[in-house]
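#struct-queue
[09:14] JT: dropping the first one here, sequence first, then the structure tokens:
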Amino acid sequence: MAFINYITQIHLDFGSRRLLPQECARSAIGKPLVVTDAGVRAAGVLDLALDALGALPHAVFDQTPSNPTEAAVRAAAAVYGANGCDGLIAVGGGSSIDLAKGVAIAATHEGPLTTYATIEGGSPKITERVAPLIAVPTTAGTGSEVARGAIVIVDDGRKLGFHSWFLVPRSAICDPELTLGLPPFLTAATGMDAIAHCMETFMAPAVNPPADGIALDGLERGWAHIERATRDGGDRDARWQMMSTSMQGALAFQKGLGCVHSLSHSLGGVNPRLHHGTLNAMFLPAVVQFNASAESMQRDRRLARMAHAMGLPKCDARGTEIAQSLRDMNARLGLPDGLAALGVAPVMFDRIIDGALADHCHKTNPRIATRDDYREMLVASM
């Protein structure tokens, strides 16, 4: 049976951050904790959001790490409680939004955060008691502002997913103006993250025609505009298009992801300093080729449909042209040419594979990968 659920209120336009007071009132948030990171504060982007809040009382937690951790969730939840907050506003990239989702759980539910992890059977334990959340993305990448999941590194070092419809932000305020100052490398890495989401959700075998359409449209927008956004950070149209690509990829998340994310989640746990979007860009070519022979990929002409969205003149049954186009795009954007450039070594493969096999995205790939399959994908991505 197909399950189709769309999803939350989304405001997509320049200046939409000015709707924050209205959206707080609609969500019954009288004193939010604003969750962000030091870089967003230093860039002056946080001030733009706080100015939009006007006289609404609030507290700020600005210590979100590049990969959110259970320890940071506890620290932010302590600030939430000490200040008598009754809701959350996440201002930042996927890390800040995911951290805020962790706080939404931790501030309202008992026990360690791991209790609520998806692979621990914790999703049903997340209830309507979660703190209300408004998400204001400052990158065009993760799409966490419209997603039901969060990724957090828990105390034992695993990078785990937390999923519940109760975690979907009450409002997503997508203001491309907040991304205008994003540096070229982060624009490229987060943009490829969004493109990976569109492609991997489209390849997932679950039946969800609206999600397929949204993902394909997002891929077409992202592929056509990522170079412009990276080359000229002030290109307002390109920034708007990439913000939409990011949001659309996450609207399709309910189909599931796959081996790109099971690998990047695992490797991000092994080395938390590695950027998630960059890892997705590295793994995507090999996973497309691994998926090419899946029955659902062949039956639904998924390779040909992705190639068309990317403007490619042809695509063989093995996905060779798509994979090479992805590698070429990574090179044009100035991203690394493989995992080795990021310090990944074969000695790490067994740990990465162990984590990938246990990841919540492993079973929603169109082909179920074995240990040997994952090893071949790692070798191909080096």
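[09:21] JT: and here's the second one, same format:
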Amino acid sequence: MADKWFESVAEAKRRAEKRLPPSVANALRAGQEAGATLDDNLAAWNELQLAPHVAGASGERDLTTTVMGQSISLPVIISPTGVQAVHPDGEVAVARAAAARGTAMGLSSFGSMPIEDVVAANPQTFFQVYWCGSRDQLQQRLDRAKRAGAVGLIVTLDWSFNHSRDWGSPHIPEQLDFKEAFKLAPEALRRPRWLATWLKTKQIPALEVPNMALPGEPPPTFFGAYGEWMGTPPPSWEDIAWLREQWDGPFMVKGIMRLDDAKRAVDVGATTISVSNHGGNNLDSTPASIRALPVIAEALGDQVELVLDSGVRRGSDVVKAVALGARAVMIGRAYLWGLAANGQAGVENVLDVFRNGIDSTMRALGHSSLADLSPDDVIVPDGFVRRLGDER
């Protein structure tokens, strides 16, 4: 409906925060510790300038590309995020929206919807895993993803144990029982539209993670799965190489910020690398991911497919990332705000905002396809790039 349409991710955020209980909104908004990385993710884009042309532009723009073997209609894909209690339809709504707009869906193993339902909604679904549990348990989860029809695997390596926030962390219960529901009731009553959406479904926000369930066992709670992950020793590159051997399709290593790590990812057989700092929710004081992209792209851009996430809010951000070496970007908070604001239609709206922004930026630059973009389109100021893990 026209009155629900929004023209920017910023407006989606405003509407989502007006609709969501404060603790849920805070969980989406916040970064780690002081939020320095979160802030830099946003500020860095504004340091990059564009060099437009004024005549000779094509009347048509081709925004299509391929990521992990999937043809998509624009260089924006859905990043996997954990339990999506902002809306009852969760990842299924997001998957449908992505399919409707011709792009791919990343599903978190900590998501709230079964992979079978998500793949049914969008056959272009990548399944995401953490190094969590034993090799046998990981193998069982990968086997389930294969049977469900996942077309690629995303291995996230950039999530640390740090979870402190200077402004306080929202309370997330282990289980939403009567006691917890009573405790959270004042927040929910302050957001009657959000509450009504859930009441219509006759269910409560799911705090279980069905894709972490092992055969014959009930799904663990989010914190049960989180505890298992925290209790699992961090993987070695040999472990990641083993995981690569278990998956015979496209394989993304997510969370790379250093060139030396990127080279190791290529060595173990990654087909795609996500240059990412986990949206500012990992190690605070890590630079913005766009600052790390140029060095990795220059060294490895002809050896591995690169995508970028963290802090992407506008179509012009996407164009800057592609010009500097990314095949596409992954979005997280942006689509969650759309989901909270207006369900599936809100996610479609966010993707349309990106499409329109990419198209208008391409037009101003005088390019007719993504392949025409190059570093020459972006003015990178001295001192902008971070050469992390670069031997030079």
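[09:30] RK: nice, looked through the second one.
[09:31] RK: The mean pLDDT is 91.
[09:31] JT: good to know. DSSP finds 14 helices and twelve strands in the chain.
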